[in-house]
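Handout, section B. The chain below has 482 residues.
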Amino acid sequence: MTDTADDKPLWDRTAAQLAAGIRDKSFSATEVATSFLERVDATNPALNALVDLRPEEALAQAAAADSAVAAGEELPPLHGVPVSTKINTSLRGYASSHGVTAWAGAVASQDAACVAALRDAGANFVGRSNSPAFAVRWFTANDLHGKTLNPWNSAHTPGGSSGGAAAAVAAGMVPIAQGNDIGGSVRFPAYCCGAVGLRPTMGLVSGSEPRGAEEFDSPLSFQTMAVHGPLGWTVDDVRRGLYAMVTPDLADPVGLPMRPPLGEPGPVKVALVRDAGLAKPHPAVNAALDDAARWLAEAGHDVEEVELPLLGEAARLWSLLLYEELRTMLPEIERFGDDAVRVSLTSSFAAAAQMWGERPTLDAYIKGYARRGTLISRLQRYLGEDRVLMTPVSAEPPFEQDADLAGDDRVRELLAAQWPMQAVPVLGFPAISVPTGITDGLPSGVQLIGGRFREDALLGVAADIEARAARTRPPLARTHTG
């Protein structure tokens, strides 16, 4: 996708185009904010992707950005670019509600570290993106803000838990959205809505909440698996979002004082893994993998189909480690959660019990973490410096809406289908979901997994897929011109 789009409305331009235009005074930050706010007005009522909207604040931020341009100040990379933040991440002056009605008044006094980094980069915060209560579903609905719809087909999920972020990006409400991911919550919504979503290497983007926030002894799986990451309409938007969000922060228990390489490497080896032994890929999923493999070969990459059982083993470990630690949060979820999250988690625990028993032993849990380290070492050695994995995002197309409320059998299928989403957090490697087109009216796509801190390789390979994939805005978005 080129950076020349003079014929496009401002809301349909990339972050790079917007920042450059504001910088060279082709248009103002106020004009950009107005275009995106009009786009929100035109599309959000049908989707409910963004909540807690305050247009006057976005316009005030834009006016300040224009004053900085007029004064000849040095401008940060996302100066005046609209960005959304998720309702479970602190943005000063806004509630960190987590989609929980009882927490609707939990207003943050300061930004989370990754939000502060976006603010320092010049982002204009135009809205908060919806998520499920407690961010523990692959579907986006809660009693506080309601249900978010997929802009392609309202009968299917927009993904979760960053479903509002993905729907907003796809509809053109923002070019970049902040999300977070412990089991696919950035990558799966991007897949469902036809956007791009990146889960960075563990520790690269700080997970720290602001000083003074109520302390919460986060379970070990949250400390070692949950990350913040960007969603965007293009690979370059995601690249710019990532570089803005990177926050060397030693207050984060796994934070690292480093930044990822900024270059774009040449051709790499691509190992295609269709099936990790948990769920056979749907024909539409296989077709997306075939298309992406062909395109990458055309781009000069060495593509080889392989079997890699350790990915299936890592996915199974996710169901042990995460769900056993979620048990410690069940009293709070039971007290404050909505009916949907309770029903979903009950079926999820039942599905995990099929693999690990009703109550796994402490010995199994300890050995699970020990095995995790072995799998990380094995995968890093396999990837080396010049190999990227390509997998499905999910073994199924975007799920039917609220499929996790359909009973234990369906949830068992969902859990198996999401093996590519689960394996990555356990291992801590970076991964990106990139669209490949539209199949039967729903987005299709693939996941790329790279070696630790090789976001540059992932972004380069993803750009080669994007350059060959047909892209269009979704129907619910294209019914409005904004």
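Note. The longest strand covers residues 431-439. Compare this with the example in section A.
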